[in-house]
Specification:
Blueprint: H1 39-59
Amino acid sequence: MGPDEATSIANQYCQTWEVKNLFLMDGSVLPSNPDKNPTLTILALAWRGSEYLMEEMKRGNI
């Protein structure tokens, strides 16, 4: 995840830059394997991405 498509694959909502209707709602957006269990982080990212996706769908952007 990152602020621009030159240095990252997805934005802060796990939405890919090149395919606007593709969201990565799993651990694939994490840059490396963390030392501890990443389950809560993955859940938080999926929740945030899902809320963003719902709002964009309501607006008709996706």
